[in-house]
Amino acid sequence: MKPDSQLARRIEAGEFIVTAEHAPRTTATLSATEAALKALGGKLTAVNMGDNQHGVAMSSLAASAAALKSGLEPVLQMVTRDRNRIALQSDLLGAASLGIKNVLCLSGYHQTLTGCPEAMNVFDVDSTQFISTTTRMGEQGLLADGTKIDGPFAMLVGAVANPFLKPLELNLIRLQNKVEAGARFIQTHPVFDLDTFSQWLDAVRQAGLTKKVAILASVFPLESAAEAQAVLKTHPDFYIPDAVMERLQASGNGGGKPGFALCVETIKKLKTMEGVRGIHILSGGKEAVVPELLAAAGLA
User: Fold this and answer.
1) Are 116 and 79 in contact (CB under 8 A)?
2) Is residue 231 in some structural domain?
3) CB atoms < 10 A from the CB of 251, how many?
4) Contact (Cβ atoms closer than 8 angstroms) between residue 134 and residue 105
5) Cis peptide before 236 (omega within 30 of 0)
6) pLDDT in single tens digits along all 300 residues of the chain
7) I need a labelling partner for 139 at 20 to 30 A (CA). Which of 28, 108, 260, 292 fits?
């Protein structure tokens, strides 16, 4: 079945898209999620619901259900680190039954980078195989083993790409595999280095991939050099160039304005790049900064 989410419709219409992310808290109540979703405001096409990014938290499925109740369209994030193919497909069926229409398929960070380093990982399938399975469920109405799904199943499938992964040739192969498996939107790692991102985007465009998938470039409004260092410890695959670190260090560790200004500058430049179909905002749990950022960057 063809996905009919707001995100899917805007991709198909060629509109510029703005999404953001909410990282569910370690809580058994919905109050923190509801407050965070309210802080994000109503100007977003969709909101990602993180999946135990840094240890045990409220499930992305429950947070996505809360987003629907709040009037926001969720992107259900699912990692293969914690689920085998049975659990992945089961959660997808449950999500569809709740009215969730978008999923971001991820492998997930290794458990040693979370608060549960002693946990056993699963990785029964990788993210590309997960994309393929989800696509088959939607297009053919079949599970991985060929079992027919009872009732409609339609899910817009997304994936993540790291523009700063070297070598570029391998980077493109990984992206192409995800697109061929069925990914229809790509959210990148946060862009702090516009030159390297531009080189990656040029290669993606020359490979014809920007015509097949919507590229949403991610940004992250850092408050300080200390936060930048902390982000790199929990996200070792992020890349923050020395020039950005020096700019943050020169401002000291208070106020957050230089990092905010840098993020606004980045968004404005990304908007002019051919092949960028939207912006995805990572905030590290600071959802209240998102509306201010959208207004400053002319995206409100």
Assistant:
1) no
2) yes
3) 18
4) yes
5) no
6) 899 999 999 999 999 999 999 999 999 999 999 999 999 988 899 999 999 988 899 999 999 999 999 999 999 999 999 999 999 999 999 999 999 999 999 999 888 777 788 889 899 999 999 999 999 999 999 999 999 999 999 999 999 999 999 999 999 999 999 999 999 999 999 999 999 999 999 999 999 999 999 999 999 999 889 999 998 988 888 999 999 999 898 866 544 478 899 999 999 999 999 999 999 999 988 999 999 999 999 997
7) 108
The Cα–Cα gap between 22 and 33 comes to 8
SS3 at position 179: helix
Question: What is the count of structural domains for the chain?
Answer: 1
Q: What range does the domain containing 261 cover?
A: 6-296
Task: Tally Cβ neighbours within 10 Å of residue 167.
Answer: 8
Q: Which of 152, 104, 146 is nearest to 3 (CA)?
A: 152
194-206 and 168-181 are packed helices; what angle lies between their axes, rounded to 10 degrees?
60
Which residues lie closer than 8 Å to 94 by C-beta, 6 or more apart?
Answer: 61
1 falls within a domain: no
82: CATH: 3.20.20.220
Residue 148 lies in a domain: yes
Closest CA to 106 of 169, 60, 173, 172: 60
Is-contact 78 105, C-beta < 8 A?
yes
